Structure prediction request, 362 residues.
Amino acid sequence: MNKSSAGVLEKVSFVMTVYNESESIGPFLDSLFCQDSMPSEIIITDGGSSDGTCQAVAGYFEKLCRTYSYFNAVEKGGKIFEGVTDKGIRLLLIVARGSKISEGRNISIKNATKDFICISDGGCTLGKNWCSEITRDFFSEPALGVTGGYSFGYADSFFKACLAICILPRKSEIKKNGFMPSSRNIGFTKEAWQRAGGYPENMDFGEDMKFNFNLISCGFQIKFNPGAEVYWNLRNSPVSVFRQFFRYAKGDAIGRMYAHRHIIRFASFLLFAAVLAAAVIFSPYFLLLLAALMIAYCHKPYFRINYFLMNKKACPFIVDKNQLLSCRLRAVFLIPLMLIYIDIAKLSGYIYGLAVRDSKKA
Prediction:
């Protein structure tokens, strides 16, 4: 692949799918068009948004284009905007009403004309050099099929910061062998996508992990590039967090993924319950064992507290040392509760997914 002198990656397409992202699509597009190197085409598929997302994307694209055309396909679906920027970047907006995330991504990729595909999601913002980083290894290793980057949680509240601490590993925690990227931060060749059968359209959630497994089963290795950074705007309420992880775990069950993790999670809950019962029935000294188990349960998130809270890009709401200290202390108490809450959501979702799995082909 060649990089042009104008800072446009000639063989790279950026694709994404959106649905009701009117509040976040502007900041996302700002971060995309501020890249130090740009893809040569950008293709966005809207799943039938009702909040003006499609119109917002079309309006944003129009301002950047030297030539463009609108197509009357908003209601029936299909191509609705196509244009070319001053740098020669092709911009395409498609509507596919009722499409799921996997279908929207596949539609965008089918309309891509370049060899290498990079993907992110609405609700994220990209690091300034994300596009050059997510494609970097393909310039030096042409045989490479898949690469993934690192996701920071973007937290504008204490709740979101604790959620990031609980669910997102530090870069140093990520094992390069076995790394499984989210499709909010991934790149792959179009050939790899074709051989893996595209994103699995039978799955509502967890489709990106299933796609990863399909890539691996086709013989592709996934390379981790920690320099390709995305900031993910996390859920902001307990209800939305429960729903999110319930759905992820449901996808695990339907996709026949990570069964060992859910078995360990279930066994851990049984162990906690048994030790707590022993403390009540036999001796309060069993509470010491329970405390040791809780420390083991929480130790990784505890080591992440400073990693996230001291990152001003990830946690811009922390403005001084007193607030940082307060957040640290409160996080120590909230993290165990949030971990338990998330694991209950995962167990519930996995059990539900097992119950409905036979009705879906995974």
